[in-house]
UniProtKB/TrEMBL annotation:
UniProt xrefs under Gene3D superfamilies: P-loop containing nucleotide triphosphate hydrolases
Keywords: ATP-binding, Nucleotide-binding, Transport
Organism of provenance: Paracoccus siganidrum
Keyword Transport attributed: yes
Name of protein: ABC transporter ATP-binding protein
């Protein structure tokens, strides 16, 4: 079964010779949240801009809801809502009129009941008669989301939607995103807040230098590439790591009261049992142990580093 978005061998090269995208293929299922991660200039915004019809590709194809963005662009565009990085609003227009106007741009008739529903879901109803210039940065971003939802799209693109938003408001906005997913909206987002991608996304795609490095379910990515760190708290401080344990990759805390040991969760043997046995044999008494899973940011940096090494090799 085809996804709501089908991207095949998509490429984009600018007149200057810069390759923004290179042979990108991706299928996105209806109702999922997929996070696109990558360093600045990796090609994330270019990919979104092509799908939304704002940039013309130099190769490949994109279909949205079965409609080709080149030959059936009007039907494809009706299915898409876009929340851009930049806040661009008419400063003297009211929130309500701003959202109504955007709905009209898609050829949709007036539907104040729907607009009210959208504004209430984004906690904007109380600001409906306020000029957008009077709003905080976080509220302005909510208006951008409301405008993107004004014509009831099936796909919503969020390009760095929480940039510059405080932590509390960011959490509230992600609750809105989760509700949109429950309503059946497919969401594609780019973000630099990797902990949010880890928490919210069903799948994660990594883009670097115009290439789609990988796309995996978030949990699978964490399990496959994640490493764990074992922290061993000691009863008495050590001045150095015992010779018997030298070369095992142990790190001694500055105060000498803890040892850190990294291990691969996929390995047949983690070496933990042997390590604890050797510590006991050395007369080192363990007070407590704890583990910490690598986060998505660490995994992302590893993937990008490995990919660049392969390219330059």
């Amino acid at each position: 079964m085809a996804g709501i978005i089908e991207i095949e061998n998509l490429s984009k090269q600018y007149g200057s010779g810069t390759k923004a995208l290179s042979d990108v293929s991706l299928s996105i299922e209806e109702g999922e949240i997929i996070a696109l991660l990558g360093p600045n200039g990796a090609g994330k915004t270019t990919l979104i801009s092509i799908i939304c019809g704002l940039v013309v590709p130099t190769g490949g194809s994109v279909r949205v809801g079965g409609h080709d963005i080149a030959t059936d662009w009007r039907a494809a565009r009706r299915l898409i809502g876009l929340v851009p990085q930049e806040i661009a609003l008419e400063p003297f227009e009211t929130v309500m009129n701003s959202v109504r106007f955007t709905r009209g741009l898609y050829g949709e008739g007036r539907d104040d009941a729907w607009i009210e529903q959208v504004l209430r879901s984004l906690a904007l109803w109380g600001k409906r008669d306020a000029a957008t210039k009077e709003l905080s940065g976080g509220m302005k971003r909510r208006v951008l989301i409301a405008k993107a939802l004004s014509h009831k799209p099936k796909v919503l693109f969020l390009d760095e939607p929480t940039a510059g938003v405080d932590v509390a408001l960011r959490r509230e906005m992600w609750q809105v995103v989760e509700q949109l997913r429950r309503d059946g909206v497919t969401i594609i987002l780019t973000t630099h807040y990797l902990e949010e991608a880890e928490e919210m996304a069903d799948r994660v795609g990594v883009i670097d230098r115009g290439r789609l490095v990988l796309v995996k379910p978030t949990a699978e990515l964490m399990g496959e590439f994640g490493r764990k760190t074992l922290t061993i708290e000691l009863d008495a401080p050590l001045t150095r790591i015992p010779d018997r344990l030298d070369g095992r990759g142990l790190r001694l805390a500055a105060d000498g009261r803890a040892l850190a040991y990294d291990y691969d969760t996929r390995a047949e043997r983690t070496g933990i049992a042997r390590l604890l046995g050797d510590l006991a044999a050395e007369g080192v008494t363990v007070r407590d142990v704890s583990t910490r899973q690598s986060n998505l940011e660490e995994i992302f940096m590893t993937l990008v580093s490995e990919t660049r090494q392969e390219v330059t090799a």
